[in-house]
Amino acid sequence: MPILEFKNVSKTYNNVTKALTDISFSINSGEFVAIIGPSGSGKSTILRCINRLVDATQGGIIFDEFDVCHANKNEIRQIRKKVGMIFQHYNLVERLSVIENVLHGRLGHKSTISGIIGRYTEPEKEQAFQILEKLGLTEQAYKRCDELSGGQKQRVGIARSLMQEPNLILCDEPIASLDPSTSKVIMDHLSNINKTMGITCILNLHQVDVALKYAGRIIGLTSGKIVYDGPPNQLLKSTIHEIYQSNEGELITDVA
Amino acid sequence: MSHNLSKAARPANQTSVFVKRKRMYTFFFLGVIAIMIASSLIANFDYIVGIKSIPKAITWSLTKFIPNSSSWHWLTDEILKALFETALMSVAVTACSAVFAFAFSLLGTRTTKINPLIGRAVRIIASFFRNIPDVAWVLVLFMAFGQNILTGFFALFFVTFGLLTRTFIETIDEISASCVEALHASGANYMQVVFRGIIPSSAAALISWVLYMIETNIRNATLIGIISGTGIGFWFNWFLKSLNYGAAGLTLITIVVLVIAIEITSTQIRRAIL
Ligand SMILES: Nc1ncnc2c1ncn2[C@@H]1O[C@H](COP(=O)(O)OP(=O)(O)O)[C@@H](O)[C@H]1O
Ligand SMILES: [Mg+2]
């Protein structure tokens, strides 16, 4: 059953920059999808259209029964509650503790006033600690986020999104600022979340090899257009070169 | 062995960046000197005479402004009370404008503005208040309030409000933008984002600006008091006019001591919160 559907979506920023052109795809519940493409090809724009951080210019987006493009303020909040998001630069409140940042994932579910004063229920706290345990962050629970390493911060980001109890997690270059071994830890966690919790994941990735290894499906994007959409084992080398508009031998992946 | 190295290729068509940079510095230096000479000619200011008169001015003020035994009673009679009043006013005015500036700046930041037009308007209003000098405010407000502490209060309020709004907008955009984005994305609403994201991430930086404004405002309040005839400024002016230089010197010393004390305190607070 599709959880997300893009129908001929286009996005033009400020009436000038064409970021997406006629994008259509459909993603089933439980898929683990990687979007690859060069910088500026529109990967972030696709993710941001889903939770309305960006408004699509044309076309339709259906997420879990919601008509995303025509959602009103209240519906946007409902959508965002169900969509977790993970960022390249983690986007935590660095001066607050790990546990407080994780609990921020509940704000969408709370009334304005209890959100403002930060009143969380006992079950919510229990759930937060369980998630931290699962991600190996129990020791760090009361540390301030600016004391953590990059990999730990990203795990806090994941924990925060899990706290939302989402149906879908969007990851915008989740490992672009991390070293290879930390990247593996993060990718393993995301893959594990997808498999054990059944949460659909869409990841923007720079690293083709990582995408090939983890993703069940790859969408290749060039200049705002889809040039490949299919399983990793059918992605030809020549198609990769088409995506990155490069010649044989110019990509790091060619060496391997 | 350097003569063995062949020359590396360089783009040849343009003047080297190094030469350009050197020229820029030379022009800048000559420009500053030219402006100094031109302005002193226009203002009829002779640097030689100006510099020559410095030692004389120092000796004159040192001998005149040293407090003597007859000036001490002013300290307890008037100076301390007026100084206290001025300091309290500066703190109150800064705290007051900080609250308004924070609420206002939320409408002006990139991440929390409600609509672009209001954001624009906020920046323009803040810049209007900031760019009218406090002394001009005093002269205008003096007509409304007369010789009243409110004159100084509002003059400082407007300038501080304008300045803090501007710095708050920039600080929030710089520090909080990323976590604000994440909280929005997770479905938090406006007020939740403000209290759970912006305040915890930016508070320390904002408070640091407020402390700085308290320091500045105590100095400015003295000057404003001279014009509006209130607080410590009034007494300083009065001592000068009645040729009571000893008491005027004593006033200056107490102001300096207070300002230094405030600076030390705020440095301590800054160190603790940042
Ligand atoms: N907020 C924005 N305003 C204007 N142009 C934007 C904005 N965000 C992205 N763009 C432009 O849209 C295009 C796609 O950007 P983006 O989706 O960020 O690509 P990617 O994530 O693949 O690097 C780029 O040309 C970029 O410059
Ligand atoms: Mg991007």
Coarse structural class of chain A: alpha/beta
**How would you spell out the order of helices and strands of chain A?**
EEEHEEHEHHHHEHEHEEHH
Distance between the termini of chain B: 53 Å
Low-confidence blocks of residues of chain B: none
Separate helix tally of chain B: 10
- Average pLDDT of chain B, rounded to a whole number, is 88
* Largest interface by Cβ-Cβ < 8 Å: A-B, 33 and 19 residues
Describe the structure.
The complex is a heterodimer of chains A (256) and B (274). By secondary structure, chain A is of the alpha/beta class. Chain A is built from 10 helices and 10 strands. Chain A has a 6-stranded mixed β-sheet with strand order 6-7-8-3-9-10, with helices on both faces. In chain A, strands 2-1-4-5 form a 4-stranded antiparallel β-sheet, with helices on one face. In chain A, strand 1 and strand 2 form a beta hairpin. In chain A, helix 5 packs across helix 6 and helix 6 packs parallel to helix 7. The model of chain A has no long low-confidence stretch (mean pLDDT 95). Chain B is mainly alpha-helical. In chain B, 81% of the residues lie in helices and 0% in strands. In chain B, helix 3 packs antiparallel against helix 9, helix 5 packs across helix 6 and helix 8 packs antiparallel against helix 10. The N and C termini of chain B lie far apart (53 Å). At the A-B interface, helix 2, strand 6, helix 4 and helix 6 of A face helix 7 and helix 8 of B. Adenosine-5'-diphosphate binds next to strand 2 and helix 1 of chain A. The site of adenosine-5'-diphosphate has 12 residues of chain A, from strand 2 and helix 1.
Features:
heterodimer; A: 256 residues; alpha/beta; Rossmann fold; four-stranded antiparallel β-sheet; globular; B: 274 residues; mainly alpha; MetI-like fold; 10 helices; 81% helix; extended; binds adenosine-5'-diphosphate; binds magnesium ion
